[in-house]
Amino acid sequence: MELRQLEYFVAVAEEANFTRAAERVRISQSGISAQIRALEREVGASLIDRSSRVASLTVAGKAALEHARAALASAESVQRSVDEVNLLVRGRLDVGMVTACTVTPLFDALAAFHHAHPGVEVSLAEGNSDVLIQRVLAGTLDVALVGTASDPPAELESFVLIREGLAVCVPPGHPLASRREVTVAEVCEHPVVCLPVGTGIRAVFDETCSRAGVDAHIALAASAPAAVADLAARGMGVGVLSRSMSADFSDRLEAVPISDVAVDAVLALVWSPNPSAAVRALTRLVSENV
Predict the structure, then answer these.
(1) Are residues 174 and 238 in the same domain?
(2) For a surface tag, which of 8, 28, 68, 72 has the fewest beta carbons within 10 Å of its beta carbon?
(3) Which helix (H) or strand (E) holds 270?
């Protein structure tokens, strides 16, 4: 008994017609008929009633159908498992991350993945979160580290690494530097240096301004947190970053929490449903390194 015979039998059973079944499995009608007759000889029973124009199942055929489907599904699972192992031996993993990422769990996970699966080629692309999310949805990235306002997109699988508020970063001596916290309205009394539209931090800040009914004067938008900090340190405006980002620049800036942030700033790993073995391996390593 061969798997292709079971495939042909299931096709005839589902199409109820030899011609349509032959077209479905891309074989001639005479070929599919011959293979099913060979299957019937092997099992010792007629499976298809050929007495009318409609190909219907005999009692034996009905009993065999679900077992044939199960056998084909098992064979497909075996092939899928082998394919996934092969991908971990010599496949490719396309990873995206927010520009100027400094989150060590991702780097630690990538290093561990490389040591465990040296034959897998890993590519790394930087970009704004909105672009990275669209690339994951389109299938041009396997997984991406992105910033979002509140929760990651529901249509993607995700693992949240950080959920936090925002802070305003100002040099010592600035009017806000001695405050324990500030409102977004107080922040917007000054020119603002922030990350660009399309980033999670900017989305959180814009949403907070909108809900508070204030307009921010964005003096400059810089793509990297370090650039935002450098510009704020030089008096180009007050910098707005996440609280964890702002802590990286405590040597030259005071970080003051913004008290009325409307939604959380979230840093998350996102990937499509039904991920490959490589994606599952990487996401597991990230979760272990957080």
Answers:
(1) yes
(2) 28
(3) strand 265-271
Q: Is the dihedral of CA 92, 126, 283, 154 positive or negative?
A: negative
The whole-angstrom separation of Cα 115 and Cα 284 is 15
| SS3 of residue 70 by DSSP | helix
In this predicted model, what pLDDT tens digit does every residue of 241-277 receive, in sequence order? 999 999 999 999 999 999 999 999 999 999 999 888 8
Spatial neighbors of 255 by CB under 8 A, at least 6 apart, are 167, 168, 169, 241, 243, 246, 247, 249
Q: Are residues 147 and 282 in the same domain?
A: yes
Looking at residue 158, what is its pLDDT? 96
Residue 133 tokens, joined: 């999310």
| Per-residue model confidence as pLDDT tens digits over 43-55 | 999 999 988 888 9
Backbone angles phi, psi at 45, to 5 degrees: -155, 150
Does residue 70 lie in a domain region? no
Same domain, 281 and 257: no
Handedness of CA 235, 236, 238, 242 (dihedral sign): negative
Statement to judge: residues 128 and 181 lie in one domain: no
CA distance 190 to 200: 22
Q: Are 11 and 47 in contact (CB under 8 A)?
A: no
pLDDT category, 83, cuts 50, 70, 90? low
Asked if residue 74 belongs to a domain, the reply is no
Is 275 found in the same domain as 139?
yes
Answer whether residue 77 is part of any domain.
no
